[in-house]
């Protein structure tokens, strides 16, 4: 589990290995992750967009950007949190993800980015 606080917003990420399968004659490694976004600030905020950098051990990098998270743009009052589950596919048993959420503070109307700390993705069978 990794955690980081940016501008009063705490991000916690837990990962798990889901398994392997073949797609287009290539082996793929599936990983799941659970993200909790906790508003530790005194202002109401809304998550508007996400930006991910996904990399694997073969130096492949994928950038994923889009609105909200899993179709939602959660509004978080002070002390509230939002948890969601998602996943990704890698072509190697090791990788990492990092990024940021674009948010808006409803009190100040200012937009700001919240860092998503880098977290590792690793298939347990490949570890020494």
Automatic annotation (TrEMBL):
GO terms for biological process: error-free translesion synthesis. Signal peptide: none annotated. Residues 3-128 form the ApaG domain. This is ApaG protein. It comes from Olleya namhaensis.
């Amino acid at each position: 589990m990794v955690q980081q606080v940016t501008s009063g917003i705490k991000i916690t990420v837990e990962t798990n290995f889901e398994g392997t399968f073949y797609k287009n004659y290539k082996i793929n490694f599936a990983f799941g992750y659970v993200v909790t976004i906790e508003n530790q600030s005194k202002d109401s905020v809304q998550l508007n967009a996400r930006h991910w950098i996904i990399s694997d051990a073969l130096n492949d990098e994928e950038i994923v950007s889009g609105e909200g998270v899993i179709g939602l743009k959660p509004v978080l009052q002070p002390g509230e949190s939002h948890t969601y589950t998602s996943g990704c596919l890698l072509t190697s048993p090791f990788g990492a993800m990092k990024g940021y959420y674009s948010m808006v503070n409803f009190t100040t109307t200012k937009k700001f980015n919240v860092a998503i700390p880098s977290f590792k993705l690793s298939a347990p069978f490949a570890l020494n």
